[in-house]
Amino acid sequence: MSRRVSVSNSARDAGKQETREALVAAALAEFGERGLDTPSLDAICARAGYTRGAFYVHFRDRDDLVVAAMERVLGAFLDAVIGRGDVAADLEQAVTRFAGLLRATAASPRARRRRGAPTPLTPVPLHRLLEACLRSHAVGEKFVLLLEEAIERLAKTTLASQTAGRVRADLDPAALATILLSLALGVLIALEAGLPIDVDSARRTVVSLFTR
Q1: Which position has the higher pLDDT, 64 or 126?
Q2: Boundary (domain end) residue, out of 39, 59, 79
Q3: pLDDT tens string 39-68
Q4: Which domain CATH number covers 76?
Q5: Distance (Å, rounded) from C-alpha 43 to C-alpha 51?
Q6: Which CATH number goes with the domain that contains 9?
Q7: Is the pTM of this model over 0.85?
């Protein structure tokens, strides 16, 4: 009996996770196409194939959904640039990966066609996320927590690279991580504004500042 109950609970949990994932994916698609403010909850639920009742099982309100979408976007970005666990990049590799994503973004037809449009790197434009942070304390608070997590992961990558002798030992890992993250955010905003950036030259310059 207990095994049957356990299997039933596992199936129910998997179903709930699938519903949540579908709602977040639908939100990202709607936000990317129409911005953070325009899509209604009804439109997001319809796109996911669920009702508002299902929505409120997983999210308290719209801000809660925005937070989940933001976690998905920034989490995927960090994994793509820094990596996780045994596949984590060293610091120079992380900068190179970021530069590669910037090149893909700059080459996006949608990015060339319209400033501030969603791109392969930023399915929800960063300036829209920042606007949401200003409107909602909950969203802003979560954004800061995500940035702090990014700095912590980047600092660990920096320390590992210092230990391997690939990064200057006189640099504070947390301070360098904070500066690099700030630069990355600034570059994303500049690209969304339409500022042309020589990605390869910028990458070489940044790497030269911290390598031995």
Answers
A1: 64
A2: 59
A3: 899 999 999 999 999 999 999 999 999 999
A4: 1.10.357.10
A5: 10
A6: 1.10.10
A7: no
Residues 32 and 129 in one domain: no
Distance CA 189, CA 21 (A): 28
Q: Are 58 and 23 in contact (CB under 8 A)?
A: yes
Q: 40 by DSSP, 3-state: which?
A: coil
Q: Are residues 29 and 116 in the same domain?
A: no
Count of domains forming the chain? 2
| Long-range contacts (CB closer than 8 Å, 24 or more residues apart) made by 126-130 | 126/185, 126/188, 126/189, 126/192, 127/189, 127/192, 128/31, 128/35, 128/36, 129/36, 129/70, 129/73
Same domain, yes or no: 112 and 8: no
Residue with the two structure tokens 């194939």: 49
SS3 state at 167: strand
What tens digit of pLDDT does each residue of 151-181 get? 999 999 999 999 999 999 999 999 999 999 9
Q: Which of 33-37, 81-85, 137-141 has the highest mean pLDDT?
A: 137-141
